[in-house]
Amino acid sequence: MTRPITVGVDGSAESLAAADWAASEALRRNLPLRVVHAWHWEPLTVPVVNDRDAQAEWARTLLSDAGRRLTERHPGLEHTAEILDREPVPALVDAAKDAEMLVLGSRGHGAIAGFLLGSHAQQVIAAAGRPVVSVRAPADGEEVPADGAVVVGQQGSAEDSAAVLRFAFETAAARGVPLRAVRAWNLPPVFAYSPVVMWPGDELGDLAAHHREQLTAALSPWREKFPEVPVDEHVELGPGGQVLLAGTAGASLLVVGRRVRRVPVGARIGSVAHAALHHARCPVAVVPHD
């Protein structure tokens, strides 16, 4: 079964940027695009808009305008549009189930706060069983290069990162761009508890070599499957989010993993994914894995 790329729109500049990104990716991968808007009737206290028919018409117009815009900007794109009559979070999580990926817009960028990821988007990212790509509207004069490298963060074993690396290699192959694979590592906990301990240089070298070997091993099967994708391997001592973000200059996409956790309360996306979503200047794909 061919999975479409699904994008959620709400009429904002951010969602229109997400729709453009999703359309371009659908054309690259020769996939259909499904445009959705989650709308559920809720009586409001403001009389002028407290009308179900008026709200429904607004939702239909929003989708119609989005579809017309996509047709004009992306000739040859196969796309459909649909109103989801549910609350936004469950509607988008369900929409992601049958999608190759779900694409959402993210709000703005500030020097201190970074990207302001909406609460709905964060909940969807934390709950979706498929990759979710977060795209922001570019600032004036800013442009993310479409031919920039795909950067992927690799953590854990080859099995742990298989889904993340698969998505990154597929995306790099579809775009015809190189892949930059990054693995961050930290000193063993004993060093944190005993700061006076001086690790010999050879021991640190052994640790670095171990992580290089882990990264190479994780990449090996995907190099074989995608021989056309040039791969640059980078291993660095430091916090995962910081090391990963430092390697995204000129990147077209950053791909990170999110371990699927069953928690009783709240949404969890992990510290590295959180840092990427709030501070990366390029679109960010969050790929769930066991």
Automatic annotation (TrEMBL):
Lineage: Bacteria, Bacillati, Actinomycetota, Actinomycetes, Kitasatosporales
Classification via Gene3D superfamilies: HUPs
Protein name: Universal stress protein
UspA domain: residues covered: 1-136, 150-288
Family: Belongs to the universal stress protein A family.
